[in-house]
Amino acid sequence: MANNVQNGLRQEHRQHQTMTPRLQQAVRLLQLSSLDFALEVDRAMGANPFLEPDEPDQDAGEVTVDATREASALSTLVEPAAHDAAPEPTSAAEWESSLWSQQNSGAGSGQSRASGGDGEFDAMSLAAAEDSLRDHLRGQARLLPVSDRDHALMDTIIEALDDDGYLRIPMEELKALTDLDPVPDDAEMAVALRLVQSLESGIGARDLRECLLLQLKSQHMEAESHAQDCSMQCLAERIVEEALQRVGLSDLAGVARIVGAPVADVERAVEAIRRLQPRPGWRYGAADTRFITPDVVARKLRDEWVVVLNPDVVPRVRLNRMYADLFRSHRDSSHADLAAQLQEARWTVRNVEQRFSTIVRVAQAIAKRQHHFLDYGELAMKPLGLKEIADELGLHESTVSRVTNNKYMATPLGVFELKYFFSRALPTSNGGNCSTTSIRGAIKEMIEAENSAKPLSDATIARLLSRQGLQVARRTVTKYRQMMKLPSYEARRRGPRAGAESANGKAATRPRGSNGARTAEPDAGFSSIAAATSPASAPVTSDEPAHV
Fold first, then answer.
1. Per-residue pLDDT tens for 290-316?
2. Cα angle, residue 530 at apex, residues 529 and 531 outer, rounded to 5°
3. pLDDT tens for residues 12-43?
4. Planar angle of CA 389, 393, 397, nearest 5 degrees
5. How far is C-alpha 435 from the geometric centre of its chain's CA atoms?
6. Which ranges in 279-335 belong to alpha helices (H)?
7. For residue 391, which of 367, 371, 362, 420 has the smallest C-alpha distance?
8. Dist. CA 204–CA 195, nearest whole Å
9. Does domain 425-499+518-533 match CATH 3.30.70.20?
10. Which of 28, 334, 411, 512 is deepest in the core (most CB within 10 A)?
């Protein structure tokens, strides 16, 4: 049987959409945050001569600067004779005084330039920079009378510490990082680790138990040096070694059974453990604070929520009219690159206007649909999808998604990312629906209003929500609670002392700072210990709004 192969040409017509390079760039810029977008515009101004900063009263400022330069030049021409007539120092004391005056004047001019050139004193230039954990430990290690080899091993261990002050890298890996010949053995690494741990209390631990033991042993040694009673430190060390899990669950009776001590002594020892720092590295270095500048601001005017653009996030850029007019008057075919740059400059200015116009439109549509949330809080949040906003504004869903990413709205309730206002709908028992955000708000409200002596378990919260018509499973309650970074039932449960204080009318609450935030001592350390030892407190990613 012969195979007949036929070759031929066939023409087909197909239609598909293709994004131009300029449209692709516009899409990329739309999903950037305002800070990243401002950096992109700054780079464009530095590379394109047809773009310039749009500064208010720029012309008046230029006239003032030019007049100042002319006056300065005139003064240098008029005053040389006076400078020439000045007597030169003859004695050594006069030479030293003259040199000191020149150094001071030079430092002053440099400081004036650092402060903007206006002659004002910049107090922030004198602020002392906080040493990081590693810098502090290296400074302490240089004071120890040890060999150069031990110093090298200590530096290797110090560099391997994380921001919490823990040593997470195994010793075998650290040996390969030392670059010493011969390679250090286990005994040398153990000595170097003990030296690092002796620099600061709790630093260089491999886990939470070792971190707490290092701090307790340091207190034990200090108490012995002052001839004080060390029985409490000894009991606390036993509790950390044998019953740390029970401490995280606030099970004082179980701790007393394990260590064989009276409950009253165990309670005092646990109080000493609460005052320890589970993350000793946080005592050094500045906190990594992330500030957020909102893109839009929501205000209520005449019983209606209005969204306005924050002018501080808009890059001030405009077309340089003088360069554009010069180019148009001398335009020829040899300046094709300048023509492309002029077109790019016009597109950049137009893109800035369109970007923030789209952000305001989307934010206004969100505020219109979520006005109950703005009035009453997260319990009044309605289900909302990207398609609803896209259909209302005539945009694509992907465009709305890019607009809501890394864009923030300032409201009387705080600063929220725009995507925070979108949540899926969950059916209720009466045939309606509610948002997942409102359910999280209800869970948070229940936990905040619970009795600290008898906290609500996740199953109990699910039953309470079911009575309100919200059919939520227990595992969903656990998921939402972890998303809000709320402690588990075991971690929230207090000991018998807290229950007695509540019965006596005493508030068994943690101390709060002046701004309402919980302070770090003494309970913040204990809550961290409880979170670290509780099996139900796995780390999760949070969707909580960012507040400023």
1. 788 999 999 999 889 999 999 999 998
2. 90
3. 777 766 667 777 777 888 888 888 898 999 99
4. 50
5. 27
6. 321-329
7. 362
8. 10
9. no
10. 411
